[in-house]
Amino acid sequence: MRVIILLTEQLSLFELGCAVELFAMPRPEFQPWYSTQILSLSAGSYNGLAGSSLQCEQVDTLPPADLLLIPSFPVSVITPDARLIAELQRHYQQGGRIISFCSGSFLLAAAGLLDNRIATTHWRYAGQFKQRYPTLEYKDNILYHYDGVIGCSAGSAAAIDLGIEVIRQDFGYHCANSVARRLVLPAHRSGGQAQFVEKPLTLTKSGISQALDWATSNLSAQLSIDDIAKKANMSRRTFDRHINKHYNMTALQWLTERKLDSAKTLLEASELSIDEIAVKAGFDNAVTLRHNFRKYLSVSPMQYKRTFLRG
Known about the structure:
Elements: E1 2-7, H1 13-23, E2 35-40, E3 45-47, E4 53-55, E5 57-58, E6 67-70, H2 82-93, E7 97-100, H3 105-110, E8 118-119, H4 126-132, E9 137-138, E10 144-146, E11 150-153, H5 158-171, H6 173-182, H7 208-217, H8 225-231, H9 236-247, H10 251-269, H11 274-281, H12 286-297, H13 301-308
Parallel strand pairs: 1-2, 1-6, 2-5, 6-7, 7-11, 8-9
Antiparallel strand pairs: 3-4, 10-11
Organism: Rheinheimera aquimaris
InterPro entries: Class_I_gatase-like (IPR029062), DJ-1/PfpI (IPR002818), Homeodomain-like_sf (IPR009057), HTH_AraC (IPR018060), HTH_AraC-typ_CS (IPR018062), INH-QAR (IPR052158)
Domain HTH araC/xylS-type: 209-307
């Protein structure tokens, strides 16, 4: 699977480092894996912070690739180079995927690639983005959005969250979790096609985060939201408010996503029957499991298994 990391007008070392770590780092334990190049349409060398510089291959046209990654783009550039826009659109029209980190979403928007899609970027640039592209559906309260074709992330570190989700969709939970562990990140992220990752909780381990960890480790059909609220030493109403504030979803949606995460991992890594997986993941039965897969993922459990299970 070929990946191109495309540098544009400026070099952002952190975002480039995230892209390289996620998609260019050799991982011989996984076969197949990504084959990644760093390319530019405009320059063969870039200057970074603290006297650093980077040499890369300059090309006239982008070669065929599965995934094109834009680490950053200067928000001061209102009208990007016409050749750059044309190459992005050609890549997309040929069936390629495109993701951006941080301010790279400005380039995606300029190329029309975020039309009829959800957009986000670093909070510092949110006002400029919404003013420049008022017709786009902009989301302030998410870390990233990826629909399987086009994706963009919020602040710099959210690039890692987006990258992990791309890896999960390409190679499954096992590979994504392994990469996350190497980066010393939580192995599991929010599921569902919208792929909204939860905001980091700032509460202490003695409060709600401990209760959520407990719930994730004790999934069952009998586990209720009231049980988790009690574990957090909160009233149900207060607990619901905290979940909505930090996760932008209801407590029931959060619990359903944890069950789906568990089911997806079991589908990928075990030979258990659908009935057994349903029980272990915390659903009432296989019927409920199938219903939630269809509702949130638009596939059946067996379709998911055939897509991601790697023998």
